[in-house]
Amino acid sequence: MKIIFNDQTFSFKLLRTMGYAAFGGADIGECLSTAYRIKEGNFESWYEEWLRTANRVHREADESSKNGNKISARDFYLRASNYYRTAEFFLHGNPLDKRILETWGLSRSTFRQALTLLNLHWEIVTIPYENTELPGYLYLAGNRPGPVLIVHGGYDSTAEELYFQVVISALERGYHCLVFEGPGQGAVIREQQIPFRHDWEAVVTPVVDYLAKRPEVISDKIALMGISLGGYLAPRAAAYEHRLAACIANDGLFSFQVGAIAAGLGGKAGGEFDLSSPETEDFIASIMAQDTGIRWGIENGGFTFSAANLEELVHKTEPFTLEGVAEQIQCPVLVCEAEHDHAFAGQPERLYKALRGPKTYMKFTAEDSAEEHCHFGALKLANHRIFNWLDQVLTNKVSE
C-alpha cells in the first residue's frame, strides 16, 4: 500500500499519520500536501516539513482558543499533536539532539490542551514503578464500575498517539481505558532515560495494582493490549501476571532479537557475520545508507535501549523472546496478523503456535484494506473485530 513515496518506510509512516483522520488526529489534505514537500528518504526533510505543518496547525489552534472557538481549537490541537509526533519520528540517530525533547514535548502539550476541550472523563495519572513513576492517561467510559483495557505501544509510539488508535473506540464500546508509557517509551525514555526491559511483567503488574484500587474498575475484567513491539511485551507480561482476563497482541511477536535480524542481512551478503569487525560495521553502514527502514530501526534501537552501538543493541535484545514463556499464559489471547506486515512477517504464527491456553488467530488481509503493520489505514475495521472478540471473552468470563 504505497502513498506518494516509493520508499516503503516513508509511505507507511505517512499512512500511519494520515490514518488517524478517522479519529480526529489528521486532515487528509494537510498530510498529502506535507508529504509532497518531503524529499524522498531524507530524514531532515521529513522533520522540517512535518514541523512546518504542525506549527501552522498549532497557530490555528491558539487563535481559535483565543477567540473562544473551543471546538475548532480542540480539533486543531489534536492534529498538531499528531503532526509534531510525526515530525520527531526520525530524529533518534542522535539521542542528544535537542529537537527530540522540544518536538515531542509540543506533541504532548498540544494533546493535553485538546484534552481540556474534550467532553470526556479523563485523568493524567502517575503509576508507582520501582523507584520512580510511569506516566499515563485514564479515560472513563462512565461513572459505573466497568471493564478496563490497558493499552501500551511498542518500539516508537506515545501514550498520546494511542488516544487515536484505540482509546476512542474503547470508550464508544463502554470500556474504561488506561494507556501508559513504560521503559523505552515516550516520556520514560526521553525524560527519565529508562530503556526497554524484556521482563515486561515487572512493568504491567504495578499498572494492574494501580487499577485494582480504582472503584471504577471491575477487577476480574482487566484486559491488556500491546501494539507492535507490544505484541511481544503484552504476552510476556500475561505469562506472569495472571490477574489479566485477556491479552491482545496487535500484532503478534514471538521474538525481537536484533542479532538474528542482523545475521539475516549478513547471510544475504554471504560469509561470516562478526559484529565486532570493521567490515561488518562498514556493511551495516552501507545498508543503513540505502534502506531507511533499517537505518531507523537501528537508530531507534540505540535510542530506546540506550545502546551505544549495534553490538550492544544485539546484546540487549537477546532476551526478547517468548521461547519457554508463551506456554505459561493462562488467559485468552488474541493474536493479530497483518497479511503484508513489513516489520514482523511470520512472527504472529510463531506466537500462536506456542500458546497452550485459550487462543484466537485474527488475520487482516489486503482484501480488508488492513494488510499493513498493525492495520494502519483500517483502524475502524481492526477495532471493530478486536473489540468484538474482547466482548465475547469478557462476557464468557462473567458467566463462568
Automatic annotation (TrEMBL):
Record's Gene3D superfamilies? Answer: acylaminoacyl peptidase, alpha/beta hydrolase
Molecular function terms, GO-annotated: hydrolase activity
For this UniProt record, the keywords arranged alphabetically read as follows: Hydrolase
Pfam families according to UniProt? Abhydrolase_6
Q: What residue stretches are annotated with the AB hydrolase-1 domain?
A: 148-358
Q: Which domain of life is it from?
A: Bacteria
Family, per the entry? Belongs to the AB hydrolase superfamily. FUS2 hydrolase family.
Q: Which PANTHER family match?
A: CONIDIAL PIGMENT BIOSYNTHESIS PROTEIN AYG1 (AFU_ORTHOLOGUE AFUA_2G17550), DIENELACTONE HYDROLASE DOMAIN-CONTAINING PROTEIN-RELATED
Q: What is this protein called?
A: Alpha/beta hydrolase
Which organism does this sequence originate in? Answer: Paenibacillus oralis
